[in-house]
Every structure is written in C-alpha cells, then in structure tokens.
Amino acid sequence: MRLDQFLQKTLGVSRQTARSILKSKQVSVNGEMVKQAKHQLDLAVDRVFYGQEPLVYQEFYYWMLNKPKGYVSSHIHDGGIPIYQLLEDFSHVEMHCAGRLDVDTTGLVLITNNGQWSHRVAHPSQACFKRYRVMTQMPLSDDAIAALEKGVTLGNGETTLPATVVRLADNEIELSICEGKFHQVKRMLKAVDNEVIDLHRLQIGAITLGDLAEGDYRALTEAEIEEFA
Fold first, then answer.
1. What is the pLDDT of residues 143-155, one digit of tens each?
2. What is the per-residue pLDDT across 177-217, written as a single tens digit (0 to 9) for each?
3. What are the RNA-binding S4 domain coordinates in residue numbering (predicted)?
4. Which of 102, 142, 193, 216 is flagged as catalytic?
5. Where in the chain is the domain with CATH 3.30.70.1560?
6. Which of 20, 100, 145, 185 lies at a C-alpha separation of 20 to 30 Å from 12?
7. What is the CATH number of domain 62-124+207-227?
8. Nearest-5° angle of CA 116, CA 122, CA 127?
9. Of 183, 172, 120, which Cα lies nearest the Cα of 145?
10. Assigned CATH topology for domain 130-204
C-alpha cells in the first residue's frame, strides 16, 4: 500500500492532506523519516509513526449500534438522520448496515465495511435469527399468538416460517424469526388483524444488544465477528 493511502485510511484525511503531512516531516517508517507519497509499505512488517503516535492499518471494522428513532440506515437524509452520523469518529470508513431498520424502529444494528460479512448477516438466503420486542395497538389473543407461531400468510400471499413468541404483556411480545422479508414483523402483525406501534430489535444471530445505551455503539468482539465468518 502507498504511504499516502495508508495515511488517508488511518488518519481519515484526504490525499492532499496526507501529502501535506508527509512534506511536514512528521511521518516515519521503521524509524526513518519518509516524505515520498508513493513509498510502498509492507503492512505485515513496517511500523509507521505520525509524530509519536503509532499508526495501525485496520482493513475491516465491525460495530453494533443501538439505533434511536428518527435515524435512517442510509447515507442520505431519506426521511431521517443518517445513522452513520452517530459514528462520526469513523467518517473515513465506507461503512454500511448489515440489515437495515426502518426510521421508526429502534435497537440493534450491525455496521461494517466488509461486504461479504454483511451478506452473511442480511441476505434472506442465510435465514439469520433475529429477535424483536413488539408492542401492538391492540391486545394479542392466544389465537393470534398461535398463528404467529405456526406461520401467517402475508398480504402478497407469502407464508412466513414458524416464529417463536413470548408474551410480555397483553399487547407486548418478543418475536423471534429466521427470515428477512421486507417489513416482515409489521406485516405479520397485520396478518393477525393488529398493528405494530413500537418495534425494537434485540438480537441478530448470537449477538445481543445487551445494555448498550440508545445512540451508543461499540466494536464487536472477535467471537461476535466469528458468528458470521
């Protein structure tokens, strides 16, 4: 990798700024000051410092975020605030969501710059387990819960796979599914003549939101990353 590209990725700066930093004689490679932008690095061996700060290249990033309402899982203001603004310290990383949430849905979102990893999380063919807390407009009858557990027919004629349902209150459940149909949870509740008024994602695969505060994020652990490796 070229040294100027390395500085762009590790410092989150433009190529022009990276070259200005090199000209200022603040960058050393293996103890030797280097000014050449085209200098080729061996990332497995070379040690790069910016002043007294060691710079370490990281190819892939993985985070979990507790999405608040009003944020959209895109890079544009498409009816809400882009979720990536909550990770402003990593604005230089070309990140994306591994499984989106609607603007009015809260909870667990996985964010990465590894396209193959996110495919294994989000693509419907992967049948990834997801658990939600669902609040409905009206109380849910035992028959409605039984229908959700068996699988319901959606408005377009599709039938869902059996779900796991835990009742929390008359109009509140935990719903676990292994599919990723468009707006699936909301459509499932509509199929039993009800409506979702609050939807919160708690879990994807074995990765749980835990006590992460709303609007906060953290890096995934190695074990969590390996869940979809």
1. 999 999 999 999 9
2. 999 898 999 999 999 999 999 999 999 999 999 999 999 99
3. 1-59
4. 102
5. 130-204
6. 100
7. 3.30.70.580
8. 115
9. 172
10. Alpha-Beta Plaits (3.30.70)
Say which residues have a Cβ less than 8 Å from residue 201's Cβ, sequence separation at least 6: 101, 105, 106, 107, 108, 109, 130, 131, 132, 209
Q: How far apart are CA 172 and CA 11, in angstroms?
A: 46
Is the dihedral angle over the CA atoms 115, 117, 118, 120 positive or is it negative?
Answer: positive
The string over 138-167, giving b where at least 16 C-beta atoms fall within 10 Å of a residue's C-beta and e elsewhere, is eebeeebbebbeeebebeeeeebeebebee
56-110, pLDDT tens digit by residue? Answer: 988 899 999 999 999 999 888 878 999 999 998 787 788 999 989 999 999 999 9
CB neighbour class for 26 (10 Å; exposed up to 12, middle 13-18, buried from 19): middle
Delimit the CATH 3.10.290.10 region(s) of the chain.
Answer: 3-55
